User: Fold these one by one.
Assistant:
Number 1:
Amino acid sequence: MLHNRQWLLKSRPHGALTLDNFEFREKDIPEPDLKPGQILVHNLMFTCAATMRTWMNAPERSNRSIDLGAPIRGTAGGSQVAMSNHPRFPVGTRVMILSLWEDYSLLEPDTSPTPVLAQPPEVKLIEAMRDLNSCTAYFGLLRVGQPKGGETVVVSAAASSVGSIVVQIAKIAGCHVIGIAGGGDKCDLMVKEFGADAAIDYKHENVGARLKELCPKGVDVYFDNVGGDILNAVMDNIAVKGRVAVCGQVATYDSDTPAPGLRDMMKVIYRSVTIRGFAMHEFMQDADTARSDIKRWTAEGRLKHREDIRFGFEKLPHAFMGLFKGENVGTLIVKSGEPDEG
């Protein structure tokens, strides 16, 4: 028998997410009789990303809506094969998956709608967990934003997992980089650790006024993780032929209303601005190139990764809800066990 714990979607959130939207369930389950091509994985780590909040909405407001009563779905998880009837995934293989908030998951790698990626033994799971956000930053900035050396790049949620990587890749590309985040500590971190040229504390500063001061020639590239008022403040200071790479709309995820648009679309016309949303899956064919560059920059000390690691399966909802209060810095990962369990 296997002891399986789960966090389920009990109800769809209306406004801010609360613990009442989650249901904890645990029970003993028999070991499955695996069919050919199936594996049973033991989920060890869970990435918490703000976009998961949108998956809790009804299908008409979400591209990956979670069914009521089903386990919460995460953007990435680190797992180990516990049982196998698949020749490419022997017992003990470590895999990266689109995770479910449960101890054990039954998968069919060959027919799975999302990749089940075996990890080389020399790559730690914690390193593999960085991959999705690092590649999102890479493609969003370089392919969508297309920065040129000497241009000004502005990044919102710049102390987040994706944002902090964007700041550093923009510096590698030879750009002048300004990060926007909430709180003095995060702003200091952006400049001192991630190399931003300047930081704006949106909680205590007027973002529009500071952008006007810091970007006298306008913002050439804006990497948008937030939307809302910050997006409009940047658009008030956008340069001619500026580019906006829309990665997320965190300002509206934890609300009951759709993300609003720009308050003045004429700026897009007058300044010949390009605005493009993107998702990582459209660049998967080039993922190896991104990983190679990211690995090289990391080895050279030009790119730093920061993880915010929490422990305990039972704390998953608390950790996730903390994203919307700005409680994390870097990639938020919850390990299923306690610290002394590795």
Note: The mean pLDDT is 93.
Number 2:
Amino acid sequence: MLRAFTRRDPSYDGVFFTGVTTTRIFCRPTCPARRPRPENVRFFASTREALFAGFRACKRCRPLAAAGAAPGWLAPLLASIENEPDRRLRDSELRRFGVAPERVRRWFLKEHGMTFQAYARARRLGSAFTALQRGTKLDAVVFDHGFESHSGFREAFAKWFGAPPGRARPDDCITFAWIESPLGPLLVASVKEGICLLEFTDRRMIEAQLSTLKRRIDRPAVPGDSEVLKQLRRELDEYFAGKRTTFDVPVHAPGSDFQQRVWRELRRIPHGATASYRELALRIGQPKAARAVGRANGMNRVAIVIPCHRVVNDDGRLGGYGGGVWRKQRLLELEGAVPASAAPLGSSAPKAEDASCRAAPSSSPTLFERRSANTSAASPG
């Protein structure tokens, strides 16, 4: 792939996409832009992967266009998103652009394997969480990420993080970062007390989870790194390599008393085992609260470490999972809780996001050959 990218081989156009870590831009293999250093290049099997890994589309080669140019009826909408990446466009606003929301949804599902709302959400997240590059001057950050002014950048930053850039003290803020995994990129956050967020970036509820987090932990938030996040990365690497069965990284997950009881009980489910919602309700002393347990399970903001994926239906079926049922299947296979399917880890991610099943393919090059397949709907978890 690197050779094809370096040579701008047109036969690979549409087969893979390349992201440049220094600019957070992704391109077609044939992009005429100057080639970056090989160590700064990442490969993606789809535009969806690149977007949910925090990259934005190149304006020169336009990788989001199916055949070099978006349909004329869609161009104004795409331009609006690029000009205002933090703007939220609801169906009523789409109609003001003279397009039917259903038509927009069908086009994005067909061409990019995701809905328009998923695309817009990816752009908002990518803009917000890659706006500040460590060690990069503010001027470069502002204009490299499509903001027309410092004030516009600061407004967008404050809207997402609750404080202007550079205003928060490292020991008194929420620190956000991205972590790659075999099941797709993860959005993570920590405070001095521990990990407070660990979510797959394409989860449909992620913005609601971020709002809850900001309400529960009233501190400014900034992109960056911390010792807790470094520990989490090490432990996740060991977990996915099959070398770790428990997590030692500290967790800070504020919630209601009921949620706290459910989440504590989740952490008592051993690696390689599962429990039903009914069993969890019994364990916390409320045998009739299985449905409420399911809701608390779905509100868990620290995936994998607080293992809500280990909760299944009474009949043994997987049930739902906020990160997508296919991910739940793979996590349980990794832990030996269910028999491994014929497909390798991470090989059957759904192509499209629907209202209840959220999943993104991994951006890891080792999983590039994975082919997407539709999966059943997911519910809490």
Note: Confidence is low (pLDDT under 50) at residues 131-148, 342-348, 350-380.
Number 3:
Amino acid sequence: MALHAIPLSLYIHIPWCVRKCPYCDFNSHNAPQALPQREYVDALLRDLDQDLPLAQGRKLRSIFFGGGTPSLFAPEQIARILDGVNQRLTFVPDIEITLETNPGTVEHGPFTGYRNAGVNRISFGVQSFDDESLKRIGRIHDARQAERAVKSAQDAGVENLNLDLMYALPQQTLAGALRDVDIALGLQTPHLSHYQLTLEPNTHFAANPPPLPDEDAAWDMQEACQARLAAGGFAQYEVSAYARAGGECAHNLNYWNFGDYLGIGAGAHAKLTSDDGSIRRRWKLRAPKGYLEHAGTPRRIGGDNVIEIEQLPFEFMLNALRLNCGFAMAEFTARTGLPESAITPALANAQARGWLAREGTCVSATELGWRFLNDVIASFLPESEPARAHAHGGPPHD
């Protein structure tokens, strides 16, 4: 396996929010009155020092600050992180560096501070431009703040922006979902993430479900919003990602193409390929307190598993089949080290069901396959494994 041909990214997790949203199942925690910014940055860099041997001299293609709410950290702390990473790893010349932010937590002045720190892409957790919808899902910002924050970033010279929008919100109508899309289109960002609100386990909404649109109404919203986005010049390139030409997120594409990524920070996940071709998944302690205490030691690791060979087809499909364009068979072999014959039976079965289509050496989900993507992905599990695919699983992304 040509290790240096596999792209390498870095995910940096900032675990604190002003207030945890009732639908959120990410590793996020209510922020203390005084954030330990300097101490956490020190811990991140110690964590990276421990993981450097896994990078094996490879160049970073992208960096993604996720959370939590990374914009709770001041620009000078983000700069400290990026300077520290750059001292330890080489950046490709056009590296993409994304910072997630919520419109209600931009507390450190103009976005020029983040741009000067090295951030060249910002992902806004807008979710909706309707104030009542925002209240129902527990957001701390309003529609005016959201629009003002986006325009502020643009005025600061950050043009590479993503907006997160959700649909099928409590009491939302089709007209309301389309209005959100129309306002987003008017802001002229190059990227939109558009996904359905789902009730994830271990969240407040799962325990206390709000009144949500039914499946038929949610499907109508999805189809109508997709058509509106297409008319606005946005092509869908992944399950929940839409972009104008050239606006695709490089970091997320690396996930879906089964590339490698380091992960530092509380609860951060990594996927890495070794010289011998084995592929491991590693994650860090979830609790910020424990992570801070052990970031410079082996005890910072919450888990570290080599993926079993028979699991690799499923792991690959869990990512690659999210892409509209699917994958090339040569890419499957290059990224997993397995021959095409390893997936021939499952692939033939999925084609027979009308879930997957193959043109030459390229494989992608059909329209029917997209509707049942969890089942399609689960069909590549070993026969002894229970179905556990989830189309919205994987590492954090916008």
Note: The two ends are 30 Å apart (CA to CA).
